[in-house]
Amino acid sequence: MIRKTLRIKSELGLHARAAAKLVKLTSQFESDIKLSRLNVEEQVDAKSILGILLMAAAKGTEIEVMIDGKDEEMAMEAVVGLVNDRFGEEQ
Amino acid sequence: MTQSRRDLSPQELSGVGLSPGVSIGTAYEVEPQIVAMYPIRIASDEVTSELKRLHAALKESRLQLEKAREKLEAELGKEHSHIIDAHLLILQDPLLLEEIEKKIQEELQSPERAVREAAENWISAYRSLEDPFFRERGSDVEEVVQRLIFNLMELDSHGQEGLPEDLILVVPEASLFLLVEYPLERVKGLVVKRGGTTSHGIIIARSYQIPVVAGIQNLKEVIRTGDTLIVDGTLGVVRVRPSEQEIRSYQARVRKEQKLQKELVGDTSPCLTSDGQRIFLYANVEIDSEVPLGLRLGGGGIGLFRSEYIYMKDKQKPVSEEQQFKIYKDLAKVVGGRPAHIRTLDFGGERHPYFSPILGETDTALGLRGIRLSLRYPEIYREQIRAILRGSAYGNLKIVLPMVSDVDEVVQARRLIQAAKEELLGEGVAFNEEIEVGIMVEVPAAVIMLEALCPHVDFFAVGTNDLVQYTLAASRTDDRIANLFKPLHPAVLKSLYRVAQVAAAEGVLALVCGEVASHPVYVRLLIGMGFRHLSMSPFAIPEVKGRLREISCLEAAEMVKDVLRQATLAEVEDYVNEFMKKQKTEVIS
């Protein structure tokens, strides 16, 4: 299991379009991928758009990514890339 | 993420009782936008086939969304299609799907029910979010769920057989559609979030003796389909998931109330006041199935036959002349020599997919309704008039023109009626050439111009609900000004008094149609003003008849004189309360 803390930098936070991109990405991996707000116990499934949106992560929110499984390294790299790329939003 | 857990303990919700009586039954939350009903439970040997239906509906929904996305991208470009992407992902959400399947497999819920219940947990979780942007995503879930449920129902063959026999509908508001579309014989009660006492759905519920409790704001959080409910429309209380003991004690009350009702019904003797004046009582009916009941209880005939429901039968276009004719013919045959006053089309706030866009979205009360609509669309009117005329060959039908505010409207309408008569004569079709035509007196302009209207009408029908609304410029559906919608207001009383006086002087029959006629004080005032023809909800008739036997017309006239001297609503109410206290009768305020 690997974990990493990331900050949501996109203007609208982890909104519907960003969440959709994230789910499409995470669904490609076999590993179990969970998210939570930093220091919050409740976790959401990163393959569930309903779960992700319910985190209501606005811009600036710090989230923890926890990945467990065979392809965890690759998955983490992809998730970090997408989040740091501000979900591909144009600036 | 934890989802909000529902409290399953027994609960009591208080609201307002809008239709008396008690019933026990199974809660059914009516789907917004969907009028048909789906089964709540399935049999254990249906699990496999029902899961198959779920997946077929999921697939169908996905195809629809993909098609919509294609169209949107072609027309507006890629950046707008992401919302459909989100819907597609909600549809395929692994957590949601797992919950739905579990409910079908383990709890034997129907797929529709399972989808609704699984989604409702998410929707309520979204509703509790603080950030308005994320909170709003609950409506995306709702949209997806509606689509999925709709597709499930398209693929279903259960029909109504999967529905319990003792439905208690749980609805945001009691529209007329509700009671036209649902299997009324199975509806034992209504629990409504909001709705005034005069909404059409409530009026129908009353005449069917379906108990109604309204004004329960948090019903969505507490009540779920399948829960056992006790609806006490007399006390305005709903008991959710009651204990066995509570159920037993209520069952005893249900039996007692049913016995009492049976005793009241069946008295068909004429209605005389204590000083021997004959009062004619009629029934207001919303739909044709109420007619026999209205006659059995009222005897005098149908005082107001609202024709709107007929138009509800077809939502795509106006109902054809033939369809209408069949209904009016049956009505005429049932009433025979007794009058049946048919009010021509008058949509006032009821939603109708074909007519609503014509009527306009705003201000339906002050807009293109009643005779205004009919004169603007004479083709639609012509079909209705021809159907009524043809029906009049079979019994005593009368035509009532709604929303009249000017003599010219009556003249024009009569011209159209005359033209329809000549057509029928030419076609050799039978009808009553002497059919009476009257108007609704419900717009203040008609009250003011009453003398001028007399030569053009055969009778007046006073619509008290609208007369109150228009005289006081107070909508009857807006809860915030409910305190202004007061039939006892002196302005309303003076208007009614004027109608009674002018009608008597000109020799025109005046009939009062409205819920006020069944009010213990109001009926006394109406008699005192000189009205002798009253029409009301069928089930109010036996009680009113009993009350009228204790009223003397002379005394009532004295009371009217006193009341008309009062200048404010508060003074009238004080006077009336004082009077009733003396009478030791209970006052419904």
Question: Topology of this structure?
Answer:
The complex is a heterodimer of chains A (91) and B (589).
Chain A: E1 2-7, H1 16-26, E2 32-37, E3 44-45, H2 49-54, E4 62-68, H3 72-84
Antiparallel strand pairs in A: 1-4, 2-3, 2-4
Helix pairs in contact in A: 1-3
Chain B: E1 11-14, E2 16-19, E3 22-29, H1 47-76, H2 82-91, H3 94-107, H4 111-127, H5 132-135, H6 137-154, E4 167-173, H7 176-181, E5 187-194, H8 200-207, E6 212-214, H9 219-222, E7 228-232, E8 237-240, H10 244-264, E9 271-272, E10 278-285, H11 291-298, E11 302-306, H12 308-312, H13 321-335, E12 340-343, H14 355-359, H15 371-376, H16 378-391, E13 397-401, H17 407-427, E14 437-441, H18 444-448, H19 450-453, E15 459-463, H20 464-471, H21 490-506, E16 509-513, H22 520-529, E17 533-536, H23 541-548, H24 553-564, H25 569-583
Parallel strand pairs in B: 3-4, 4-5, 5-6, 10-11, 10-17, 11-12, 12-13, 13-14, 14-15, 15-16, 16-17
Antiparallel strand pairs in B: 1-8, 2-6, 3-7, 7-8, 9-10
Report helical residue fraction of chain A: 25-40%
How far the N terminus sits from the C terminus of chain B, by CA atoms, comes to 49 Å
**CATH fold-level assignment of chain A:** Histidine-containing Protein, Chain: A
Which structural category do the helix and sheet elements of chain A fall into?
A: alpha+beta
CATH superfamily of the largest domain in chain B: Phosphoenolpyruvate-binding domains
CATH architecture of chain A: 2-Layer Sandwich
CATH topology of the largest domain in chain B: TIM Barrel
Chain pair with largest interface: A-B, 23 and 23 residues
Q: Give the low-pLDDT segments of chain A.
A: none
Main β sheet profile of chain B: 8 strands, mixed
What is the tally of helical segments of chain A? 3
Anisotropy-based shape of chain B: globular
Percent of residues in β-strands of chain A? 15-25%
- In spatial order, strands of the major sheet of chain B run 1-8-7-3-4-5-6-2
| CATH class category of chain A | Alpha Beta
**How many structural domains in the coordinates of chain A?**
1
SSE succession of chain A? EHEEHEH
Task: Kindly name the structural category of chain B.
Answer: alpha/beta
Poorly predicted runs of 5 or more residues of chain B? 585-589
Strand order of the largest sheet of chain A: 1-4-2-3
Number of domains of chain B: 3
